Amino acid sequence: MAFLTAKGISRTAIALLTRTLVLPMTVTRVPGDEFAGANGDTITIRVPVPSVARTQASPGASITYDDVDEVAVDVTLAHLYHATRITDEDLSLALESFAEQVSLKQVSAVATRAEDQLAGTMNVLPSELDIAAGGADVEAQVLAAREALGEANVPSGMRWLAVSPQVATFLLKLDKFSRVDASGTDSALRDAIIGRIYGFQVVESNALNTGTAVAYHQSGFVFGNRTPVTPRGAADSATATEGGVGLRQIFQYDPDVLSDASVVSTFAGGSLVDADRVVKLTTGGAPS
Predict the structure, then answer these.
(1) Does domain 125-221+274-283 have CATH number 3.40.50.300?
(2) What is the pLDDT of residues 58-70, one digit of tens each?
(3) Which of 51, 87, 200, 234 has a C-alpha 20 to 30 A away from that of 96?
(4) What are the tens digits of pLDDT across the range 85-119?
(5) Which residues sit opposite 193 in a β-bridge?
(6) Can you give the pTM of this predicted structure?
(7) What is the distance between the alpha carbons of residues 192 and 5, in angstroms, rounded to a whole number?
(8) Contacting residues for 169 by C-beta, under 8 A, at least 6 apart
(9) In terms of DSSP H, where are the helices of the chain?
């Protein structure tokens, strides 16, 4: 039997979670330790409103004072978990690897829900551009999204294009699409990044609705994550954090049912920060 301690399971689980999460790695991250004390489970992000400079009419002329404005954006964390019981029979007679047969499934469930906190925000955005059925004009629509971000004074760096598998297929057929596997790029997101086009890093995500693509700057969304604290009442528990992603695993025996309880959990939440830094594209018939 492998990985029969919470510490061992957590080390394995955090590596799996880091590889599974895709969208949260492309946006602005809120440090987990900010979700504490008076802040609780909600952090308010202050987003500056761009200001416009004025011209003095003449030397010595009175000038105009303008307010420096900010917009408040709240990020609220939800406690996401997966809990299961493993009987004595399973532990003694059936399981060969706890990490592969139990932890992997639990971590996958938690990771999916964590990413859904951000993907849900993307999925409910109104569609601004329509991709023709079959993706015949997908290149033109990506260019239109690029233009819209440029006109909104969005920086040219750190731009992402998150796409559903259907839109990924459209893009992979384009001659101008630079595939990652052909460029030799080495990235922490190399398993999810499928290439580049017109300044966008293109990342594929099953968390997006079918026929959906979202073009955005890293600062357009924010994602928060915090590792739950180690409980004093648990028989065996551990926490692990890597790449800004944290989780906790609790491992405790329940004599009333002759079973071990395994619980993997994390706190996660995502929010839209600046709609001007985001453009959503959908195909005909896709939810908008």
Answers:
(1) no
(2) 898 888 888 776 6
(3) 234
(4) 989 888 888 887 777 788 888 888 888 899 999 99
(5) 203
(6) 0.80
(7) 31
(8) 135
(9) 6-20, 88-89, 98, 104-123, 138-151, 165-172, 180-183
